[in-house]
Amino acid sequence: MTKDREVAAKALLVGAPLKTSGFSDGKNHLVELSRLAMTAGAKVVGVVSQNISKKNPRYLIGKGKIEELAVTVNSTTADLVIFDDELTPLQGKSIEDHLGVRVMDRSELILDIFAKRARSREAKMQVELAQLQYLMPRLRRMWTHLSRIRGGIGLRGPGETQLESDRRLIGRRITTLRKRLRALDKARLNRSKAREDEFQVALVGYTNAGKSSLLRALSNRDVLVEDRLFSTLDSKIRTVELGDGFEAMVTDTVGFIRKLPHHLVASFRSTLEGIREAALLVHVIDASQEEWSNQRVVVEEVLGTLGLEGIPQILVFNKIDSLQKEELIDLKHRVRKEKQPAVFVSALVIGSLEILKTAIRSYLQQSFRHLSMKLRASDGQSLAILHEAGEIVQQEYEGHFTTIEVRIPHKVAGRLLKSADVVLLKEHGIT
Ligand code: GDP
Ligand code: MG
Questions:
Q1: 2 belongs to a structural domain
Q2: 372: which of 24, 124, 275, 395 lies 20 to 30 Å off by Cα?
Q3: Is 180 within a domain?
Q4: Chain CA centroid to CA 258, Å
Q5: CA-to-CA distance for 421 and 402, rounded, in angstroms?
């Protein structure tokens, strides 16, 4: 789905916010859409917007507006029209037939960017799966499209039989991808088992908020940083020294964005669910964005979809170097009212991250892991540590072994679990 945009496509953007749904955001959405389009390698030649009172089943926007759009396509010589809203397969086809140029919606655009950015085998498979699922109901349209405009990318010669056999082929490919991804899931589970005695922190946030920059600055290691959307698709994990002998395993994750295509969320689910193992989420917010609070809500929503809203969070307001002094004071004032742990930093200013390290460390020092472990009843040293530093919930003896459910500081738990004779049975959570 990417080939035709290697030559910079001239894109016309279309926004059609529903009048009933806070359409004042429409402008920001289109600014973001144009960043997405540029990230995908297109050149934006115009923007058209219409507040609609209901979705036209055929064209999404009104009949009159579609005529107007056709005129604009001509005058701007656009060869690509991108809708901010999701188009049904029928709408996509009707609009494309009407305008005679390639039409895509925001979901397809995001899928396209993901396809270009995927590096690891797993990310590539996840994106391919999402793309194929998106493609299935739209196959007929893609077909006419492929034959007419692109001359095909591996798919050749239209016709009903061909269409049918392609459907079967794609269906089979989807099954294969699912199977392979499941196998990778298992491998991941084993890897995460090996890390379970470490304190895990996940960076989450809107795309471009500065997560990768922060990880790089925190770990003094190279992490890809780009002023583009979605430069990180594969999670990176780095050890970060927090001071006082504490350390954390910090994971960089794919950024969130509004209207993230649901196929994509579904196929990246396992990667994103890696966040579940984190004891703490560091929610990175781009303070230089006027609409940071909307972006924050989007991130909370995606976390909610993934069932991760319960993990404790520290808010990190990043990019404060781009704020005026008064703006920063206002921001701090506004945020402090919320009583949510928050720090204000700039990933680009050396030394400004101590405050973030301290915040993570003090969380680590204050929080306890609630877990069950099994050890030798004769291991007096470990038992003494458990009784001294931990709060025993329950203890049972079984022959030469004892099973203990305990609430215990992170650091102590980490040390104990490193010992060869102690087996972690169950992680009940963080308290
Ligand atoms: P991610 O998508 O959240 O991983 O964001 P990146 O770390 O890739 O950063 C996105 C863009 O923001 C890059 O151009 C960074 O150089 C820039 N950036 C990151 N942190 C800061 C900061 O503290 N101040 C400023 N001014 N720019 C930053
Ligand atoms: Mg990144």
A1: no
A2: 275
A3: yes
A4: 10
A5: 12
